[in-house]
């Protein structure tokens, strides 16, 4: 496989005409990285702030979105220090952020609150969203930007709010602590995950499907764009059609071998998926029910699929990480050994860009001109 590109840390170009094949945006994405559905915006999130970028010019759009003040490590430790007679109150660092479908709004989620922002104006929409006065575990915005769902990891309910007014619309009784909430692509189904994963009809509040799980490994399910969900279930994983609740595939091999699931991932088209455990980590062809690549190091579900080819980014230890040609069962690119903290990656929906966190910011990679298939992500022989 190709070595990592030397000199890939080029600064953001002054104009689109001078856009190199690879460059670095001056902001980390350690807490979140996502392209808008139309590919025209990129969202980067670090511990303290979120920034939206125009992918046609690679310039920031509007303000930097912040929960509270940005602190140095020393200031964070000081503010986190217990005070006599007062509870410990950590500074409100970011947990994640996400777009609505049109990328007109962005929801930022921190430890104590979630805020919906209008990207064009940089103004918050209404008041911050909490969860009954306690800390937040997770929150999500509906694709149309009109609803906010929250959970706190302890309460057995999921709260659904009107985004504009902040009014509580409905409580979903989950029957146990809830760790994750997310909407499907059309926004008609709410997915809530605790020991079990439930699929709810947003409009009526009806609970349609239960995907049984375990109390030991509550992990976020992965949703495809075509209405398929893969969830950790019974010590293994279960792939389910969201609309019908029909199980497409269930594998509990890991449970029988007393192994632990680490994470799952699924491609946007629902044709490929990845499952990682303490026993084995593999990437599969769902239609053929067979593995593209198996025996990889554990990757906590951090696999990202190219929408335009059978390539996938695997973020794990050095022996496996990089960009893989799945049918060829080989890596076409190895990431720089210095980038030991790569945890986030994302392909643009049109396959024109790959973004991942790197030393000093967020690296943007364009595919090689005139090359198709996974090989289009290979490094240039003599630089970008």
Write the SSE topology:
Blueprint: E1 22-25, E2 32-35, E3 41-45, E4 49-54, E5 59-60, E6 65-66, H1 73-80, E7 94-99, E8 105-110, E9 114-118, E10 123-124, E11 138-141, E12 147-151, E13 157-162, E14 168-173, E15 180-183, E16 189-193, E17 197-201, E18 207-211, E19 222-223, E20 228-233, E21 236-241, E22 247-251, H2 253-256, E23 261-266, E24 272-277, E25 281-285, E26 290-296, E27 303-305, E28 311-314, E29 322-325, E30 330-333, E31 345-347, E32 354-358, E33 361-365
Antiparallel strand pairs: 1-33, 2-3, 3-4, 4-5, 4-6, 7-8, 8-9, 9-10, 11-12, 12-13, 13-14, 15-16, 16-17, 17-18, 19-20, 20-21, 21-22, 23-24, 24-25, 25-26, 27-28, 28-29, 29-30, 31-32, 32-33
Report on this structure.
The protein has 384 residues and is mainly beta. Helix content is 3%, strand content 40%. It contains two helices and 33 strands. It has helices spanning 73-80, 253-256, and strands at 22-25, 32-35, 41-45, 49-54, 59-60, 65-66, 94-99, 105-110, 114-118, 123-124, 138-141, 147-151, 157-162, 168-173, 180-183, 189-193, 197-201, 207-211, 222-223, 228-233, 236-241, 247-251, 261-266, 272-277, 281-285, 290-296, 303-305, 311-314, 322-325, 330-333, 345-347, 354-358, 361-365. The strands form eight sheets. Strands 2, 3, 4, 5 and 6 form a five-stranded antiparallel β-sheet that branches. A four-stranded antiparallel β-sheet has the order 1-33-32-31, with no helix packed on it. The chain has a four-stranded antiparallel β-sheet with strand order 7-8-9-10, with no helix packed on it.
């Amino acid at each position: 496989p190709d070595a990592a590109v030397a000199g890939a840390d080029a600064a953001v170009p002054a104009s689109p005409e001078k856009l190199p094949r690879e460059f670095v945006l001056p902001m980390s994405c350690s807490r979140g990285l996502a392209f808008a559905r139309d590919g025209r915006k990129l969202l980067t999130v670090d511990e303290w702030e979120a920034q939206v970028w125009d992918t046609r010019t690679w310039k920031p759009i509007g303000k930097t979105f912040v929960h509270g003040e940005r602190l140095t490590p020393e200031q964070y430790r000081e503010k986190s220090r217990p005070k006599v007679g007062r509870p410990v109150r950590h500074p409100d660092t970011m947990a994640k952020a996400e777009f609505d479908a049109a990328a007109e709004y962005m929801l930022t989620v921190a430890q104590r609150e979630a805020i919906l922002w209008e990207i064009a104006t940089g103004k918050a929409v209404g008041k911050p969203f909490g969860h009954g006065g306690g800390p937040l575990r997770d929150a999500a915005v509906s694709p149309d930007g009109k609803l906010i769902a929250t959970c706190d990891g302890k309460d057995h309910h999921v709260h659904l709010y009107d985004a504009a007014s902040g009014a509580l619309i409905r409580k979903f009784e989950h029957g146990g602590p809830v760790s994750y909430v997310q909407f499907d692509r059309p926004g008609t189904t709410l997915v809530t995950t605790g020991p079990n994963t439930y699929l709810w009809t947003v409009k009526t509040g009806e609970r349609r499907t239960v995907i049984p799980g375990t109390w030991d490994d509550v992990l976020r399910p992965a949703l495809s764009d075509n209405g398929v969900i893969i969830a950790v279930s019974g010590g293994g994983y279960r792939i389910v059609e969201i609309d019908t609740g029909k199980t497409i595939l269930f594998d509990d091999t890991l449970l029988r071998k007393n192994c632990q699931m680490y994470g799952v991932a699924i491609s946007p088209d629902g044709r490929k998926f990845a499952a990682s455990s303490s026993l084995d980590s593999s990437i599969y062809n769902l239609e053929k029910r067979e593995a593209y690549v198996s025996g990889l190091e554990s990757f906590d579900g951090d696999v990202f699929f190219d929408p335009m080819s059978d390539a996938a980014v695997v973020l794990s230890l050095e022996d496996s990480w990089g960009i893989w040609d799945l049918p060829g069962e080989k890596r076409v690119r190895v990431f720089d050994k210095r980038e030991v903290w790569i945890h986030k990656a994302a392909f643009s929906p049109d396959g024109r860009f790959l973004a991942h966190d790197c030393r000093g910011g967020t690296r943007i990679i364009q595919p090689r001109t005139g090359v198709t298939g996974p090989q289009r992500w290979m490094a240039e022989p003599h630089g970008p």
